[in-house]
DNA sequence: TTCTTGTTAGCACGAATTGCAGATTAGGAG
DNA sequence: CTCCTAATCTGCAATTCGTGCTAACAAGAA
């Protein structure tokens, strides 16, 4: 029972109720995002949108994504310095990233909510995010073939992968 | 105790042993990083370095940081899209971020290593990072004064969860 | 239909970081 | 100590990701 993004129609209603207009551009983006189950970048969504509505502006895509995030209808995920990705999964969840191909996968993490930081007693904690880094099965295969081993902590690699 | 970054002398030795040269620029940066116990950006470190060595290039700072990260002598932390910060704390630790002032604090999280993702059984997990978001005490005060409250999770999620 | 606003497109701009190339220098060989 | 060569430094251009601005445009109420 995953909470996915609202339907395009629901989003349209929400927009109207907030005094925002429901333009063709927004409708298309609502549609594309609703169908989407990975974690696209603004550019990727723009490419999809352009295919169906040539002339739509990248600016409009960014703007709509920001609005939706502000309204809590989608989440942003920032991992490793690459472009921001958006997440239509509104469920309380976490992420696994492949340090080879950059793929991001949603995961459930039992016990995450119970985690407690020691050393920040003066903070009012509001939210916790867990990110696992690893290698996906298909990248694991190519690694085995080329004899590479999984390198432990390597931020540099991580940075490169995300580009 | 906390495993801090290697001493400047140790880093110099490591550099030499890898066929890298120990230049005055690098020595200064080793020194500054070793002394540092917060999470500076490249720019911040550049500013410090410039004070002691006018004319040092920002490019050199970036280059040295990347080298050290590649060698595992420091970590990068990427939180929320701002400039990359580097972390001279090599211990196994996690972070708390103040969503108001952006302050980052190192914290220990007992049980973090035991976390397991469900939904990524085909990944070989290599590392786990936990990031808490919250409000630090001094920001909390200003919030109280201005009547703002800590924003809970996104409105949409809130609505759904409460059903 | 008309009017009022919110929106869009498009480009300039900005921050962060990297690519490039010529000038410079660390560090080993002689 | 001097010389030599590869590694390094600096400065600037280029790139990537995203936002500010504004004139033209269109959604939705009256």
Q: Which two chains share the most extensive interface?
A: A-B, 59 and 59 residues
- The fourth-level CATH homologous superfamily of the largest domain in chain A is Winged helix-like DNA-binding domain superfamily/Winged helix DNA-binding domain
The radius of gyration computed from the alpha-carbon positions of chain A, rounded to a whole number of angstroms, is 18 Å
Helix and strand content put the structural class of chain A at alpha+beta
Give the strand tally of chain A: 6
Strand order of the largest sheet of chain A: 4-3-6
Main β-sheet of chain A: number of strands, strand sense, barrel status? 3 strands, mixed
CATH architecture of the largest domain in chain A: Orthogonal Bundle
The average pLDDT of chain A is 86
User: Percent of residues of chain A in helical segments?
Assistant: 25-40%
Distance between the termini of chain A: 33 Å
Q: In CATH's first tier, which class of the largest domain in chain A applies?
A: Mainly Alpha
Multimerization status: homodimer
**Shape, principal axes of CA atoms of chain A:** globular
- CATH fold label of the largest domain in chain A: Arc Repressor Mutant, subunit A
Overall tally of structural domains of chain A: 2
Q: Quote the beta fraction of chain A.
A: 15-25%
How many helices of chain A does DSSP assign?
A: 6
Element pattern of chain A in H and E = HHHHEEEEEEHH
* Contiguous uncertain segments of 5+ residues of chain A: 151-163
């Amino acid at each position: 029972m995953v909470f996915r993004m609202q339907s395009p129609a629901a989003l349209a209603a929400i927009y109207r109720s907030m005094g925002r207009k429901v333009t063709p551009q927004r409708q298309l983006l609502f549609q594309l995002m609703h169908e989407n189950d990975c974690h696209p970048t603004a550019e990727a969504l723009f490419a999809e949108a352009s295919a169906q509505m040539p002339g739509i502006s990248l600016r409009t895509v960014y703007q709509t994504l920001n609005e939706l995030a502000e309204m809590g209808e989608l989440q942003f995920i920032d991992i490793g310095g690459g472009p921001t990705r958006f997440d239509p999964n509104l469920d309380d969840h976490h992420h696994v990233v492949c340090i080879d191909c950059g793929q991001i996968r949603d995961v459930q993490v039992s016990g995450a909510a119970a985690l407690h930081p020691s050393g920040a007693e003066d903070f009012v904690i509001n939210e916790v995010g867990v990110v696992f880094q690893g290698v996906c099965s298909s990248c694991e295969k190519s690694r085995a073939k080329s004899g590479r081993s999984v390198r432990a902590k390597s931020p540099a690699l991580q940075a490169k992968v995300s580009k």
